[in-house]
Amino acid sequence: MSQPTGSDVDKSVAKYKELCSKRSSIKGQITKFKNYLSSLSSIQLTSHELAKLTLKLTKFEGLSTNFDLLQTEIEVINSQNLDHELNERDSIEHNIISCMATAKEAVTAIPTDSYVMHVNPEDFMYMQTQLPEQNTEPATPEPDTTPKPTPKRKMTPAEILERAKQLQKVNCPSRGEPGTKIVRRCKSELPPPHELLASPNFRLFLYSCKYLQLQVQRYQGDVCA
Predict the structure, then answer these.
(1) Domains in the chain: how many in total?
(2) Is residue 136, in this structure, part of any structural domain at all?
(3) Domain check: are 19 and 96 in the same one?
(4) Whether residues 188 and 95 fall in one domain
(5) What is the pLDDT of residues 10-51, one digit of tens each?
(6) Fewer C-beta within 10 Å: the chain N or C terminus?
(7) What does residue 118 show for φ and ψ, rounded to 5 degrees?
(8) Is residue 164 domain-shared with residue 115, that is, in the same domain?
(9) pTM metric for this prediction
């Protein structure tokens, strides 16, 4: 197995320094986000601040993934000091998880019915809290001056039959009266069929007629037998 040359060692050292610099940048971003969360603890979250916190939290979750990949490369290069690198990983991951938990707790502390989700034409989603009502007293409703239509009363079967008889006398005079002209087909002014069938009383009247017809047929059959 060939030993690493001086050139390879120099490249490894340079790569290690580059990765450590990136890790230091991640530490700075964690500290910055932690300070931002501390500033929110002393104020009441508005719709704007809540939207900012949600976006920052989403970005911070991506930072956690980037750190995991970066720290894995550092541990591979600096495998001779693996214990030190694992301790460094635990420390940074603890800070990341602590910040994420604080941010999510701040978001979920607001009741779900106090904010709504909005989506703009670019499919960007943000949250906005509902504004408090300025006047809590209910407004006095204005009187409704619109004239209401008078409900149409449904005719009973007896009224329908009486009206039919009256129309028949007017439009269809009897044969015995002199000077009268027999009209074979009388003009009907009865209500439309759907109104008659919609009346429960008229349907009950039809069922009664049907029942009487069946009783007559049964009686005739008994007599013939």
Answers:
(1) 2
(2) no
(3) yes
(4) no
(5) 888 899 999 999 999 999 999 999 999 888 877 777 888 888
(6) N
(7) -125, 145
(8) no
(9) 0.47
Does 151 fall in a domain? no
141 within some domain: no
90 domain residue, yes or no: yes
Q: In which domain, by residue range, is 68 found?
A: 10-129
In angstroms, the Cα distances linking 5 to 13, 19, 70, 130 are 12, 21, 25, 66
Taking the C-alpha atoms of residue 154 and residue 150, their distance in angstroms, rounded to an integer, is 12
Spatial CA neighbour of 75 closest among 25, 26, 23, 1: 23
Comparison of pLDDT for 27 and 172, the residue scoring more: 27
Token pair in block for residue 34: 């932690």
pLDDT in tens, 49-105: 888 888 888 989 888 899 999 999 999 998 899 999 999 999 999 999 999 998 888
